[in-house]
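Please decode residue identities from the backbone states below.
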């Protein structure tokens, strides 16, 4: 890479990223233990912007845009969108459509920008999986298709999609709830949070190298 400064990494997420849950501590462990030889020249330790109950509403897009517009000129940012299923748990099809349209707006912000965007598939919630799995898969598949179509049609190298659900599944394709989730059946337990954190750090490094 021509530039000498590493990418600044910012993860936008919901309550999973707050200090009362296990992800922040797990992210520190995952970053510290990652042995990629170029880690420190590729990325900084990620900053987490977390808000309990966060949904992909206009307010979130406005907050993201304000922050995006204020990135210093000498900084290259990797924004990671890591959302749970709050939108579809609370608003079903309306929530699903809102995720798709508002993530597209965030993608558009990155057009002709030096900054990069990683859109993660939704984090599952076992507590509502029976009722939300159809919309969950629809949203994740459509987000993937948005990114794939963009990269094929325009050669836009600065947007990537990251699958997340698969790291919580057993060999038969079922969510390993007791292994990875807390008793509330929504948030990750320490093992699940570390599983996610390792996946993110490894994938962010790999993706940044391809940008």
């Amino acid at each position: 890479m021509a530039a000498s400064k590493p990418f600044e990494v910012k993860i936008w997420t919901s309550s999973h990223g707050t200090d009362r849950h296990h992800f922040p501590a797990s992210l520190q462990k995952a970053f510290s233990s990652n042995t990629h030889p170029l880690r420190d020249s590729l990325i900084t330790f990620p900053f987490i912007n977390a808000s309990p109950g966060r949904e992909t509403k206009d307010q979130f897009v406005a907050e993201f845009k304000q922050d995006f517009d204020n990135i210093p000129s000498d900084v290259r940012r990797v924004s990671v969108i890591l959302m749970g299923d709050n939108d579809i748990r609370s608003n079903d099809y309306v929530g699903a459509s809102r995720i798709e349209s508002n993530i597209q707006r965030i993608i558009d912000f990155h057009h002709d920008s030096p900054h990069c965007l990683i859109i993660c598939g939704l984090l599952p919630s076992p507590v509502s999986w029976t009722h939300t799995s159809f919309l969950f898969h629809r949203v994740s598949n459509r987000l993937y298709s948005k990114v794939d179509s963009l990269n094929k049609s325009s050669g836009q190298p600065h947007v990537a999609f990251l699958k997340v659900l698969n790291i919580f599944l057993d060999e038969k394709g079922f969510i390993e709830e007791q292994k990875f989730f807390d008793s509330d059946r929504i948030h990750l337990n320490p093992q699940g949070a570390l599983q996610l954190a390792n996946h993110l750090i490894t994938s962010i490094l790999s993706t940044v190298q391809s940008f």
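Observation: The chain has a mean pLDDT of 94.
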